[in-house]
Amino acid sequence: MKTTRTLATVASAAAALALAACGTTEEAGGDEDASSSEPITVTDVRGEEITLDGPATRVGVTEWNVAEYLVSLGVQPVGVSDISGFETWDTSVELGDDVTDLGTRGEPSIDTVASLDLDVLFVTDQLAGDAMKQIEETTPVVVVAGGDAADQIARMWDNVDLVAEVTGTTDEAADLRSDFDATLADAQQAISDAGAEGAAVAFSDAYDTGDAVSIRPFTETSLVGAVFSEIGLSSAWSEIPGIEGDPGYGLGATDVEGLTKLGDDTLYWYYTSESEGDVYTDALADNKVWTSLPFVEAGQVTRFPDGIWMFGGPASMTRLVEAAVDTVS
Q1: pLDDT computed for residue 172 by the predictor
Q2: Per-domain residue ranges for the chain?
Q3: Which of 103, 122, 129, 286 could serve as a FRET partner for 200 with CA atoms 20 to 30 Å apart?
Q4: What are the residues whose beta carbons fall under 8 Å from the beta carbon of 5, sequence distance 6 or more?
Q5: Where is the Fe/B12 periplasmic-binding domain positioned along the sequence (predicted)?
């Protein structure tokens, strides 16, 4: 996946957002009293057992989805990688003003991590070189799994539950799941009421290389595709032979010519950011293949709101669902 990318936030996260705004972690770990709790042992995606003295309150994170999980669970992270990028691509939660930038997601600053006296650092297996080994010399590390095209929603919840176990916020995680399930059920009903059940959606982002426009489909096996399926929408990408999602994140590849194979009734949805620019309204504005597509001529192209991290957690996916319902209503 390209690493530059991204109904209100679920109700149970409201208190978390309030804490985030003032940059406090005093209320983190709502299930247990960290000062008197027993040690916690978890097994991460590597199969490694990590034992902590109690629920982690001083937490760092290199991946944006995990940063989102933490804030939604009421735990304001001490350090996050590429804060500027996070605040561009994931506005579903708010980081505190005093959060320290850890460097890039693939290569966090070893010295910065060591200086923060963290209880734990959450990472994925995408760290470059021997960064993980160096970090583990000073800081406990829990590795969280990446995407899983076999079941993206289950993977999301497995990750949320792991983070909750480490931070003593399992009750908050249960609330997030309950609220999200209710959001999906409400959205499914709204889409049915709008007569859009089964509508074929082609969701994507796109890049202008200077020589050509490359389009990245979020197939039915992406997290976006899985969420859309839950609320009664179908993937238009499945109608095009040869477009298959990768086994991690369910992302495919095509070009403008490939879009001619989409059905006339396709709902074409996409996302970008102001900093990245809008390929569809800029680079393709005068592209005759694009402008002559039936769904373009019919005005069935929608840019989703900025700041929804399409690889994120329940907060981002709630905003995604809201946008989908708004678009078809």
Answers
A1: 98
A2: 11-178, 182-328
A3: 286
A4: 89, 205, 309, 310, 311
A5: 58-329
* Range list of β-strands (E), 63-190: 79-80, 100-101, 120-123, 141-143
- What pLDDT score was predicted for residue 209? 86
Q: What was the pLDDT predicted at 219?
A: 98
CA pair distance 46, 54, nearest whole angstrom: 21
pLDDT tens, position by position, 48-71:
999 999 999 999 999 999 999 999
Alpha carbon distance 266, 50 (integer Å): 48
**CATH of segment(s) 182-328:** 3.40.50.1980
Question: CA 62, CA 307: separation in Å to the nearest integer?
Answer: 18
Which parts of the chain register pLDDT below 70? Answer: 1-36
Q: What is the pLDDT of residue 9?
A: 35
Q: Is residue 93 a contact partner of residue 99, using CB atoms and an 8 Å limit?
A: no
**Residue 116 main-chain phi, psi, to 5 deg:** -90, -5
Give the C-alpha separation, 129 to 138, whole Å: 17
What is the rounded CA–CA span in Å between residue 4 and residue 256? 22
Q: How many CA atoms lie within 13 A of 74 on its CB side?
A: 23
| pTM for this model (two decimals) | 0.87
Cβ atoms 173, 160 nearer than 8 A: yes
The CATH architecture annotation of domain 11-178 reads 3-Layer(aba) Sandwich (3.40)
| Cβ atoms < 10 Å from Cβ of 316 | 29
Q: What are the pLDDT digits (tens) for 129-148?
A: 788 899 999 999 999 999 99
What the block records as the tokens of 310 is: 């399409």
Predicted local confidence at residue 126, as pLDDT: 79
* Among the listed residues 305, 317, 319, the one whose alpha carbon sits nearest the alpha carbon of residue 160: 317
Give residue 29's pLDDT. 42
Burial degree of 51 (CB within 10 A; 0-12, 13-18, 19+) = exposed
